[in-house]
Amino acid sequence: MRISLTGREKVLTLVAATGLLIFLLLSFGLLPLLRDWQDTSAQMDLLQTSYIRKLKMAREAQSFEKKLNRAGTGQSGSALVAEFLAEIETVAGDHILIRRFQPLQTPLDRTSAAPRNTSARNIEKLRIQIECSGSLNNLMAFIQNIEKKDAFTRIQHLYLTPEGNGSESLQCQVILMRMILT
Fold this sequence. Notes:
Blueprint: H1 7-72, H2 77-92, E1 97-103, E2 109-113, E3 121-135, H3 136-149, E4 153-162, E5 169-181
Antiparallel strand pairs: 1-3, 2-3, 3-5, 4-5
């Protein structure tokens, strides 16, 4: 028994079969591929974040090791001040005008510290006063970059004043302290 279909029924059957075929291709073919691609993309993001974090930790460890090695070489106080000045000038760049850079005239404070798993070492505190000027955004970036550059550098004093009437520039007085292991 053969059922004869009209032209309209044949077109509807063809449209329904095509729709069913498209639905099956999407649900069993393309959508799983899209989900796998999204999962892979998320895993790549996690791996990149982990890689960046581990790379940063490795750089900090290398920096710390260099500081320990430098401390063991017995650099003089003036060499340490000159090195600190060079780092600050590099961080300041062209956006910050350093007007005065002066090591404070107090003797270096010495305190005894015993880091874990090492013999007792001395910590020298090098204090430096900087007077500079620049825009607020540039000064804040400068201050953040100084502290980011060295884990042993901290800002002890910060004083901001306007440079003049109607000027967007600020005068800044900063006292920085760097601890040096000896």
